[in-house]
Amino acid sequence: MKYKLNLFIALLLLLLVGAASASERRIEFTEFTLDNGLHVILHEDNTTPNIVVNIMYHVGAKNEYRDRTGFAHFFEHLMFEGSENIGRGEFSEIVEMSGGSLNAYTSFDVTNYFVMLPSNQLELGLWLESERLLHPVIDSIGIATQKDVVTEEMKQTRDNQPYGRILTETIKRAFTVHPYQSDILGKDEHIRNATPDDIRSFHDMYYVPDNAVLVITGDIDIDETKELVSLYFGDIPSGSLPIRRPDVVEPPRTQEFRDTVFDKIQLPALIQAYHIPAQGTEDYYAVQMLGTLLSQGQSSRLYRRLVVEEQSALVVQAMPLGLEDPGLNLVLSIANMGVDLPTIEASINAELDRVRNELITEEEFQKLRNQIESRMVNNNTTIASRAMSLANYHTIYGDASLINTEIERYMAVTREDIKAAAQNYMREDNRVVLFYLPEAQ
Amino acid sequence: MKKLILSLLSILVVFAASAQLDRSQRPEPGPAPVIQLGEFESFELENGLKVIVVENRQVPVVSFQLTLDIDPVMEGDATGYVSMAGSLLREGTTNRSKQEIDEAIDFIGGSLSTFSTGMFASSLTRHKESLLDLMSDVLLNPSFPESELERLVNQNISGLATTRNDASAMAANLSRALAYGPDHPYGEITTEESLENITREQIVQYYENHFKPNVAYLVIVGDIDVAEAREVANRFFGQWQPGEVPSRSFPTPTAPEGNRVAFANRAGAVQSVVMVTHPLVLTPGHPDAIKVSVMNSILGAGGFSGRLLQNLREDKGYTYGAYSNISTDRLVSRFMARTEVRNEVTDSTVTEILNEMRRMVHEPVDERSLQLIQNFLTGNFARSLESPRTMANFALNIERYGLPEDYYATYLEKLNAVTIEDVQEMAAKYLKPENAIIVVAGNRDEVAETLIPFSATGEVEFFDPFARPVEDIALRPAPQGYTAETVIEKYIEAIGGRENLENMQDMKTDMTASAMGMQFQMTNYQKAPHYSLQKMKMGEMVMQQVLFDGEKVVIASQMGRQEFTEGEEFEQMKMQSVMNMELKYKEFGFEKQLLGIESIDGQDAFKVEVVSPGGVKSYDYYALETGFKIKSISTESQSTYSEYKNVDGFFLPHKVVTEAGPQLIQMTINSVEINTGIDTEVFTIN
Question: Which residue of B293, B404, B542, B605 lies most exposed, with the fewest beta carbons within 10 A?
Fold first, then answer.
């Protein structure tokens, strides 16, 4: 809700949500489903006297109507307004008065809320989250204020930020029919036009226990927590409306699409966006490892060539956007001063040719595996990150135990799989290319 | 049927549950949990390196952080070299090339970063031998390769270029430069020029003077016990030679007499970055430090409850975020409030920030706000202990700043002992709402004037993106005695003299043009009295030709061929085909007028309005100092001219940047041939 992120970090966060992890030490958890459909996951860790109450709703930007883009994120802001028993502005105050801290985020696929509290405030956390799920109260002052706040958020994090519109401009062209074509913040006028009716019906459809997973991690007693969860969430009625989810399938791209965008920047940027399979599919893991091969660390192929050897680029990054529906592998680069984009593009294409045509060496393959292992071990070291990962694995993959086992899927990828992924997905006719150029000042 | 049963069930559940739950009652907390600090061990090597160890077996990862405890350096015209020394440290050793270092660290999936005041390395436990081997090589045997320095300088120059469009970066530069001033190292700003002044010698000198074990701390955290930590510290860092390290002191910056307003322009910005800042002295561990953090959290750092956020976001909807910060530092630190707001509420935002600062000074806070922040900070403290790095930082601070051993063990007691009176006393002592620097980076045309009332002098000071003062771009009157004629005559003199120019018969120019991320070759032919031909090629392919032969304009491209013998384009080409038109303004009936002096990219220039016989208006800028034309603006485009060079006695701009609509065309002259007797035959298109 108040994350200020530049593009790269925002994209990385997306990845983190997707690519979360496992470690050598198993993360133990218990899960069950209440009669109203609310799925609950509990993970006990008594290292410090803190807890996290995390609730993830299976609704994101991709569930929006085309004339209401940005709505899921706008709604996330409204969820802090209050409930029948919590006055406007009190929600965060109650949390902070209780020694807690809170926030939320919206992605293309999910909306996630978390409250971090001292462990003696577990019941308070459950009361707060159940209140805004059961009966939030959103008045006209709150709506008007949050419309202004979100408009400023759009400017601050996207429109008034150098390179801030890269993702927006890319997905707009990459997806022709799938709702991933609109970014999470959406269009200013769509938010302006949102009515109290829109808000009510959005809550009625998506903010129901059978469309959510509640995860509690930290210094808890499992049995006591189970009882309290039933007490606070058991009486919340299930959804009565069939949940609207996009069923449209983006048709395979058959021809490269190229375009030029002007923005208030100094150095031109190049973006290639390749269509890739959905998060969690077999090929997805090969694409992830391909991304690591291309741009993780200074010895990676694109970094070495463009930034170190040719010195043509200031930045180069391959970022597979893992999404619930088929997503994109973005290859982004910002040119160094005096370098034109065709020069950079030729180098990137040459490196992609190489990985398509030659099997990577055993040594490079071992490096990739080490890098992935290290990344997985370093993820999920806090009770907050474990709560989000468990929620995400359950929501997107339907299997929270992947927090311990997803690494096996990476380790099952072979050198041949990586080459095949490059051949199948990193193809000229499967991409959108954007020249992102400085506009005149 | 199944559905019906399910919904029946849920009704039962509702009934059963609501019988025992009164939702209007906020749940009471259980007994407060005990917050326990972790443990650390420390020891010193023979060479003076102090080692701190925090063992934590949660994940199989170990990290090594090296911190130098040294005074900052005044860098002067090579500002940036100290930070460059930090970056260059990992780019080569006497044993390994940069490539070998990169490969080694990536192979183990580890990380190794170097800074001007230390380095950080981390990996899975099983790779720690390789990691330490690399780290100690980088620390003890750096080779500072010249070629890598050059690469990093170029890289940084490109990076700085992006600052020109980044209002946040501009405001950060400006607030830092003005809060600390030019006489303190904290106030020095890196520029393209200062980066170009960096030498390898400076960097080697910096390393040799400061990288000594006797001023260093090695903090080891993670999956390792103290015995093993001692063994590896000795093995990998024991041979590091101690030596004397210079100390330096600087005059302490002071807050301005009255409020200053400093502005950096970002053309076309729709939001302003607003910062209110001033220097202050608050050392780590000072008895005021905890009280000040409480005071500042109430003002603008307490999660969603900070007054700045509540006021500017939740009450007024001006912004997405608004925060304040007071750091501690052994020399000098500063207060900073920061937000980003839409243009039209920029001045109201400054009013609100100053008022919130004044309210802290003049009114006692209510008990509830104080309690909330104490609870919030207590919770944050407890949560921070989840990371073993927190304990390691506590240990480092205790050693480094000479804090009492129980400083952090008693932190919560001290935090919860802070009173309403303390808060107001701290606000009065450390907040300076009448002696602040108000920094705004944003849209000059829409915002700058509205800020005048905040300035004690009634002036808004303007700066470039790197905090160098610039004149406001407003027009100033030209000195007495100057007219459009004298300015143009001076220009004619500067580019070769009237007589010389009148003898120019023809000219062929070869140029490289880049636009839309692509490169073109252009060749221009001109011949008196009115012939011109422009050929544009991409590689070997001719993309477009534009001809004027006195009677008609011909435009030929792959799209086809067009001819004009009248109309706007014809008139325009007719004028453009005259060489050195300035010589013939009178003859052709141009009207011209000197408007005044403007600053163009830091150069003062005369602004001359020129109206063609057809009524087309344009503005030309002639540099005061050189007489050269440096810029020309018309309704559809604007061009800047630079790099004037002597070609056979004529001075011609070798770089021309033209902006038309959203397009930017950059032209560089590769060669010019003058008076070679170009045949009139050339001016045809088949």
Answer: B404
